[in-house]
Amino acid sequence: MSPAVPPSAMIDRIGGEGVLGALVTRFYDLVESDAQGARILQMHLEGHGLNHVRPEAFDFLSGFFGGRRYYAERHGHMSLREIHAHVAIRAEDAEAWLALMDRAMAETLPEPEARQIATAFRRAALALVNA
Predict the structure, then answer these.
(1) Which of 56, 67, 74, 94 could potentially form a cystine with 62 if both were Cys, beta carbons 3.0 to 4.6 Å apart?
(2) What is the pLDDT along the chain (131 residues), one digit of tens a residue?
(3) Model pTM?
């Protein structure tokens, strides 16, 4: 009997959409409750608010992690730059986002996958710095 082949899509490796939902929920709970999230929260409140961003983040990350591309199905793209073009993002904002996401991942995702995702998130967050 040969060993099972591990799932290749990150969404499968982390445990599916339920785990992704837990990650998004925990991250935005931290944004709302932790002082490190204050500027991120303010940016969202100046836009469409957290009730809008929570499902949008889930939809985007599903596709980003190799699952169903809900965000692209609705918006026709998966461009982080386009999504965030209206927001002034400083290096310290990106670092705060990354710190809170690292905490959320540590609480919700398997460790090897969280490490791999953190690397991709760091590249993406720093590429969005525009102020």
Answers:
(1) 67
(2) 444 545 689 999 999 999 999 999 999 999 999 999 999 999 999 888 889 999 999 999 999 999 999 999 999 999 999 999 989 999 999 999 999 999 999 999 999 999 999 999 999 999 999 99
(3) 0.92
Residue 96's domain spans which residues? 11-127
- Could you tell me if residue 115 is inside a domain? yes
Which backbone phi and psi does 4 adopt, to 5 degrees?
Answer: -65, 140
Tell me whether residue 116 is in a domain.
yes
